[in-house]
Structure formats: C-alpha cells, structure tokens
C-alpha cells in the first residue's frame, strides 16, 4: 500500500480532551451485573425491580444528606435507587441479617453504615436512641406488621423540623391509618412471590 494514500485530512476536527474532575460524583452503573449470590427461602428476600425502586425513591421530598434507613436491605435495590436520586451514602444505614447478603451490601456501599442482624432486634435496641428522617423498605411479607411497627418506632424529624417520611412496598392487604397508597402493583412484580402489593407512604408530623 502507498503511504501517501493515508495522509491526515485537511481541517480535520480536533476536540480537546477534558479530564474528569476529581471531585465529580461517581455514577452508579446499573447495567453492571453483580456477582450472583445464593439466597435461601428463609430470608424472604424478594428483590425490588429497579423501576419500582426508583419510583419509591422519588416519593421523598428531597433525598440528600438526611439520615436514611433501609431495613432488611437484601441485595440493595432500594439503597441504589436512593443514592441515584441524590441520597448521601454517608447518611445511609443498611440493615440485613443474612450474612451473604450483608457481605454483598458492604462491598457495594462502602461509605454506608451496616448492621448485620435482624431488623426487629436492631429496632428494639435503637428505639429512643436514634431517629431516621427517611425510611425506605420492602419488609418480609409474612411479618409485615411487625416490621412496619419497628420502622415507625425509628421514624422522626431528628430535630430538623421537617416530617419524617417512610415509603414501603407492602402486601395490598396491609393497612395503616396514616398511610396513603402511592400505587398498586401487579401480581408479576416479583418472580418468586405471586403476591399483590402496593407502595405506601407515611409522613410523621413535624416537631414544633
């Protein structure tokens, strides 16, 4: 081949390469597949689909540097959605009793607070000592009432004067006097549980 056939084009477009700012926030790659993990049936881990998790995260007034709790976090779908919505990982507390799931969460969310134990036990000890302004949860369906009571015992403004907000994915039969339904979900929401579910929100009154 003749070398003169491969000359640069006159007036070729050249664009400067702008280096990424060192302080730019890291964007989560939701397309990346996490390492498969074995989940036993006793864990009642029904993974929240990403689009449902995003819808739940959107129900909060303004995710950011607010103390936020995800009980029974499972594979972290709700935590990822909250961070993508603007939640600071440093203000996020994740509770998960399943040791394998807890290890996976610790590797995903390195700056979050992690509690590897039963949420009901954690809530009993933490009640009156800590408040969370935001709680997002997909509790075990067979113990939904107990888990909701435990979560509500930790919900509060934490002295900031704004109402605590709780968003949960629960069976359609669950009722609470302060809850309103955001959206009812179809029976095909979870591949492992054919249960009709809904997203609800509860707002706690502001402290005066």
Structure report:
With 208 residues, this protein is an alpha/beta fold. Helices cover 21% and strands 17% of the residues. α1 (50-57) crosses α2 (77-84) and α4 packs parallel to α5. The chain has a 7-stranded mixed beta sheet, with helices on both faces. It is built from 5 helices and 7 strands; from the N terminus they run αβαβαβαβαβββ. It has helices at residues 50-57, 77-84, 99-108, 119-126, 144-152, and strands spanning 68-70, 92-95, 113-115, 134-137, 165-171, 179-185, 197-203. It has one domain (44-203): Rossmann fold, CATH 3.40.50. The longest helix is centred in the middle third of the chain and has 10 residues, at 99-108. It is globular, with a radius of gyration of 22 Å.
How is the main sheet built? 7 strands, mixed
Tally the helices: what do you get?
5
Overall spatial form: globular
Strand residues, percent: 15-25%
CATH C-level name: Alpha Beta
Helices and strands, in order, run as HEHEHEHEHEEE
Count of the separate structural domains: 1
Read across the widest sheet, the strand sequence of neighbours is: 3-2-1-4-5-7-6
CATH topology: Rossmann fold
Q: Given the helix and strand composition, which structural class is it?
A: alpha/beta
Number of strands: 7
The whole-number mean of residue pLDDT values reads 81
Tell me the distance between the termini: 82 Å
- Rg (CA only): 22 Å
CATH superfamily descriptor: Vaccinia Virus protein VP39
**What's the architecture in CATH terms?**
3-Layer(aba) Sandwich
Contiguous runs where pLDDT drops below 50 for at least 5 residues:
1-43
Share of helical residues:
10-25%
């Amino acid at each position: 081949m003749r070398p003169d056939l491969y000359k640069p084009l006159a007036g070729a477009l050249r664009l400067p390469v702008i280096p990424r700012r060192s302080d730019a926030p890291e964007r989560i790659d939701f397309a990346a597949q996490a390492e498969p993990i074995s989940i036993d049936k006793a864990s009642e881990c029904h993974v929240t689909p990403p689009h449902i998790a995003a819808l739940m995260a959107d129900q909060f007034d303004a995710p950011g540097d607010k103390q936020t709790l995800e009980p029974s976090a499972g594979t972290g779908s709700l935590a990822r959605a909250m961070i993508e919505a603007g939640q600071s990982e440093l203000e996020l507390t994740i509770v998960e009793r399943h040791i394998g799931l807890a290890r996976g969460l610790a590797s995903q969310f390195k700056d979050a607070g992690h509690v590897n134990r039963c949420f009901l036990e954690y809530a009993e000890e933490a009640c009156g000592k800590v408040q969370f302004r935001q709680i997002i949860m997909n509790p075990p369906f067979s113990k939904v009432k107990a888990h909701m009571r435990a979560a509500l015992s930790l919900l509060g403004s934490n002295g900031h004067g704004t109402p605590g907000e709780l968003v949960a994915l629960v069976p359609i039969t669950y009722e609470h006097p302060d809850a309103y339904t955001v959206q009812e979900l179809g029976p095909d929401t979870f591949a492992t549980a054919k249960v009709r579910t809904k997203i609800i929100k509860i707002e706690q009154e502001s402290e005066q």
